[in-house]
Amino acid sequence: MSVCGGTASEITVVGDPQVPELVIDFPLSEIKRLAGTEIPFPEMRRVLNGLGFLIAGQGKTVKIAVPSWRPDVHGKADIVEEIVRIVGVDRVPSTPFPRGDKARKPILTPMQLRTRKTKRALAARGNVEAVTWSFVSKPQAELFGGGKAELALANPIAADLSDMRPSLIPGLVAAAQRNADRGFADAALFEVGQIFKGDKPEEQLTAATGVRRALAKASGSGRHWSAKAAEVDCFDAKGDAYAALAAAGAPMQALQIVPGGASWLHPGRSGTIQIGPQNVLGHFGELHPRALEALGVDGPLMAFEVILDRISDARQRPTRAKPVLELSAFQPVSRDFAFIVDRSVKAGDIVRAAQGVDRKLITDVAVFDVYEGKGIDEAKKSIAIAVTIQPREKTLTDQEIDAVAAKIVAEVTRKTGGTLRG
User: Fold this and answer.
1) Residue 13 located in a structural domain
2) Which of 32, 100, 284, 290 has the fewest beta carbons under 10 Å from its own?
């Protein structure tokens, strides 16, 4: 008043200042029922009196008056909690639940199991798990196929966190750049979390995503005296994507790799993983320079993202159990084939055609050479594969091996239009 020249107003009281009294009828048996332990009445009285409670009565049920400063106490369970809190939880005996004769039901859902296995697989490849914001800026959301009006936040916590994320890549890329800015350039990060394609429940998907930069290869990060340091490439991202899909239970033999990927990936250094054109599981490759510029980060950066929800659950069929490892006592045979095909033909098509000749005998088909140039038409290329034939019942004769080889050539020719290179 001496500083500002004001005068105090009259005191105004709004509402009832009197706190209503709460008295609880408390059966002494409630302690045994809820906490499973016996607390003598004198000890119970001492504990509650020390906390400001008043107790009246001596029978099986007593009246307990709750102090005015304890608005959190409403009923009998709260009284039991106060007593156990003071006497010690160690007074509560460990009592197992009755198990019964039936087998235990699984606790984790199939998606929870899939998520845990995926995280373990990615961590085993040298990736470090990160947890990023579920929100991104609107330009970043639009870059990765989001930015819809229904996914914009009504009250965002920051201007650059205005939309629900359509991909985990923006958050991981930003985290990798922050590490690089602080001297940790060789970053390999992954996250398994939710992405949002719309505001409906079925449009909320679980994605497994990872980014690698600089020298953070799966074979080892950083420089080493024993070998020349190599920067990450799109095949590191492909390996991560395949490891995640295998751990999540995807049918690996049915996966197809299609060149090119999403718009945020480099068109010549990326691929799409699918099971037929209708079921795209994800993408991998090098981030497009325009995407790097839009995200404000330094490149090159390798990334992958696979959608775990798009992996179909394995059908439980009553089949005869197969051995985990089936070995043959006979020597495997390897044969090399080189096919001249159109440049548009994918190596995976040749591999699948060769594998389909005899899935019991042919145990492996690997591409070991691709050639384009002198001696081959400009519209053609040469793709060489190594086929491993594993006899099961007896050693194959030359005639039987030649018959399998002839079937391989015929099948590849039929499905790809290729011819055996002379």
Assistant:
1) no
2) 100
How many structural domains are present in the chain?
A: 3
* Residue-level pLDDT at 261: 87
Residue 45 belongs to some domain of the structure: yes
The 10s digit of each residue's pLDDT in 262-307 is 999 999 999 999 998 889 999 999 999 999 999 999 989 999 999 9
Whole-number percent of the chain with pLDDT over 90:
75
Query: 30, 61, 91: which is the final residue of a domain?
Result: 91
pTM above 0.70, yes or no: yes
For residues 298 and 356, membership in a common domain is answered with: no
Residue 314: its pLDDT value, please? 59
What amino acid is encoded at 243 in this protein?
A
C-alpha closest to that of 307 among 121, 116, 118: 118
* Residues of the domain holding 291: 110-310
